[in-house]
Design goal:
By secondary structure, the chain is an alpha/beta fold. Helix content is 33%, strand content 23%. It contains 13 helices and 19 strands. A hairpin with a 2-residue loop joins strand 4 and strand 5. Bound molecules: zinc ion (ZN). This is M20/M25/M40 family metallo-hydrolase.
Length: 473
């Protein structure tokens, strides 16, 4: 998960003390206890790259599912080589009776985590700790939250003797945070063998809470920008620093980067981004909210564009961005540089493409001595539709869990979840996590990652309600 700041929650934050969370011992149902235990146990596996415990986690999950009555043939474990690191993927099939005639639904989560160094954390990152209304530990949000709730929901529904009217699948990847080798392979397998109606991702979206833990809106990730990194290099014969030449790799690269610094890509607007700003603009106060509503009305409004482009929270929604992130040059203090290289990271607006973006950068720089190298395989993905049936199922879950309707706001993410690999194969994929957090509680990938305890247990109902709505209650 790439964390996008919950601007909405921050903007709406009401003044006043932070409400203390209910820390009394709660009465857990058997299924809540079961999903808690799964969560606790899988947080204990250090599934970060370099520690090779994804296979242990897969063995644990398949045992739980098998004990709950899932047949071995419906628990598909595959080994992958993720750029030299062994990992595994797990696909689980919940057989339906086929009575609806509808294509299957696939749900996504990832089992790997970004590593965490125990010495840097206040509590052991690989031991689930409940404190002050939060669960602490690496993966409590990203994305063992999703794994535990999806597996828990499958087991709960199986226990209830429920048979869906279409097949349901879980696809859990093992290297989402790094190479996404397992994700790509699973997406291909799903396309060839399952051909689902659509895909639901547990790894993004979710409810934004205000400072006092009240739900503000449900965010649904419906698109991701394309992540592409270029290295820009200037080479030069070099020489002795006592005899400078008129051309110099460092000066040339610097001049190129200054041109990039001044460049703004064309403003883009899609129905998704316009409706996103229209919805958000209702609740964001001041000049920023005004600009959001004005942009939703007219994406060519220059004042609105200027305001949204100058705000780091909103600039990414307006179009492609490219920014220099690393630099290396020269080899000795007394030698002219033989090369200078800058890393430029781009987040490309859906539908624009890497080639056009590179061509635009080259045109802006206007110097053929600057060579471009695309650093990794790029996945471009289109915008997904939030289908009416999915929207209705999510709305039902929200109404049941919060006792009222809250707005559902589709948004575009800066890029980086498993979902893009399914979108690129033509499957509408939306991320609808059951999680809920305040803007100040986003710690995914960082220190002291945590999840709201209430939101954790409510995730089980979230997925249960959604699946029953979409696959026969
Ligand atoms: Zn994630």
């Amino acid at each position: 998960m790439r964390v996008k700041a919950f601007l909405l929650a921050g903007a709406l934050a009401s003044a006043g003390p932070i409400a203390a969370q209910d820390t009394e011992t709660r009465q857990l149902t058997d299924h809540q206890q079961m999903v808690h235990d799964i969560y606790r146990d899988i947080i204990g596996f250090r599934t970060a790259r370099g520690h090779q415990q994804v296979d242990d986690m897969v063995a644990y999950l398949t045992k739980r599912l098998s004990d709950a009555g899932f047949a071995q043939e419906d628990l598909m474990v595959t080994d992958y080589d993720s750029d030299g690191e062994p990992t595994q993927g797990l696909i689980v099939r919940y057989r339906g009776d086929g009575s609806s005639g509808d294509k299957p639904i696939v749900m996504l989560a990832h089992m790997d985590v970004v590593d965490a160094l125990p010495e840097d954390w206040d509590r052991d990152p690989f031991t689930l700790t409940e404190e002050d209304g939060y669960f602490f530990g690496r993966g409590t949000m990203d994305n063992k939250y999703g794994v535990a709730n999806l597996v828990g929901t499958f087991i709960r529904l199986k226990d209830e003797g429920w048979t869906p009217n279409r097949d349901l699948y879980l696809a859990f990847s093992g290297d989402e945070e790094t190479g996404m080798v397992s994700t790509r392979a699973q997406a291909k397998w799903i396309a060839e063998n399952v051909d689902p109606a659509f895909v639901l991702n547990s790894d993004a979206g979710g409810t934004a809470l205000d400072d006092e833990f009240k739900p503000l809106a449900m965010r649904v990730q419906a698109a991701e920008k394309t992540f592409a990194t270029f290295e820009l290099t200037v080479s030069n014969p070099g020489g002795h620093s006592s005899r400078p030449r008129s051309d110099n790799a460092i000066y040339e690269l610097s001049a190129a980067l200054l041109k990039l610094a001044d460049h703004k890509f064309a403003v883009q607007a899609t129905p998704l981004t316009r409706s996103y700003f229209a919805a958000l603009g209702q609740s964001v106060p001041g000049e920023l909210g005004d600009a959001m509503r004005a942009f939703a009305e007219n994406p060519e409004d220059p004042a609105a564009v200027a305001t949204l482009q100058s705000n780091p929270e909103t600039v990414g929604t307006l179009g492609t961005t490219c920014v220099a992130t690393m630099l290396r040059a020269g080899h000795a203090e007394n030698a002219l540089p033989q090369s200078a290289t800058a890393t430029v990271n781009c987040r490309i607006f859906p539908g624009i493409g890497v080639e056009k973006t590179q061509a635009e950068l080259a045109r802006v720089i206007g110097n053929d001595n600057v060579s471009f190298k695309l650093m990794a395989e790029v996945t471009e993905s289109p915008v997904s539709v939030l289908r009416d049936d999915v929207r209705a199922a999510v709305a039902k879950s929200l109404a049941a869990r919060y006792g009222k309707d809250i707005p559902i706001i589709p948004y575009m993410e800066s890029g980086g979840t498993d979902g893009m690999h399914y979108r690129t194969l033509g499957y509408d994929t939306v991320a609808v996590s059951g999680g809920a957090s305040r803007s100040q509680d986003m710690y995914a990938h960082g220190l002291n990652e945590r999840a709201n305890v209430d939101a954790f247990y409510s995730g089980l109902d979230h997925w249960t309600i959604i699946l029953k709505e979409l696959a026969g209650g």
